[in-house]
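[agent] plan:
  1. take the single chain provided in the ticket
  2. run structure prediction with default settings
  3. attach structure tokens to the ticket
  4. add a short note for the reviewer (M.T.)
[agent] executing step 1
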Amino acid sequence: MPGVQLLYYRKDLFESEEEKAAFRAKYGYDLEVPKTWQQLRDVAEFFTRPPELYGLTWSAGKGNMAVQNYYNIAWSWGADCFAFGQGFPDPEDPLRNMPICNSEIGVKALEFFCSLKPFMPPGAAAYEWAEITADFTEGKAAMMFQWSDFVRDVEDPAKSKVAGKVGYALMPGKPDAPVNNVPGIIPGEGYASLGGWGLVMNKDSKNKEAAWKFIAWASCLTMTHDEMKDYLEFGGTNTGRLSGYFIPETTGYRVGRYPIELEMYREHIRRRPAIAEEVEYEIIVGTEVQQAFIGAKTPKQALDDAAKALYELMVRGGYIPEDQPLVWPSKYVNPDGTKASE
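[agent] step 2 finished; step 3 output follows
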């Protein structure tokens, strides 16, 4: 089952004539759903009125939360974590497996991520995904970046004070990002990490045929139309079956989530490193991102430390020989983090 982060926003706030007039008076342009990160920052600043309201609820929680949320920014800025970029490590040239998370572009992206902290609720540096959503459903934030599956909680009147008042949008982008970038992004377009869930069968299962039938059904592949409609409404709200995104009776379709989600899948997805040690990568980078976010380290120091730890990880994993020192892979990536001409 795939999953991706979306921009959730309060339509009642964005469509308020009073808020529109106040925003234009302060920033000199119209209040609209942010399409760029600079617009996002302006809007987040504008709606921050503590303790009742904050501009944005998000997270720099240690590990998974921090690394994924930071790279949603960093990718759109043209930064990536390893010189091989999107995909798998290079089996031929270990230099291409060197970390580049501490490039100039990467550092600037982390500086920007940290600059959003004043517009988030207290505690965002340690939030889990559920705490991000709790702020939003309580009406304490104008915007939220969150996985698409949380729409069910947001649109449930029994759980959410903002049900029926929420819009969904693509991630913001950075129009002046370099064209020759490692992650292969289009300047101005927003990106998010591909997430999701998998159903697996134990290789020693004594009921493999039955297990496979259940997996095929539970992943929506063999569900009937009515079964899939009920599943998306009352079970999980994500599916890998395309037709599931076009069922009018589902909340995801009715509130406009599914068209945005499909667009994210089609054109706006990037991936975490395709290495067996991916969880360790998340802990390393996510820990250092959080250190920068709380001010314990500068963004540069945090990413320099992350690069050293990632180098050691890649050596342990056999992607870089033990006798190969940590060096900048200038053959593939320029010092500023842009992609070198090959």
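[agent] step 4 note for reviewer: The mean pLDDT is 96.
[agent] ticket updated
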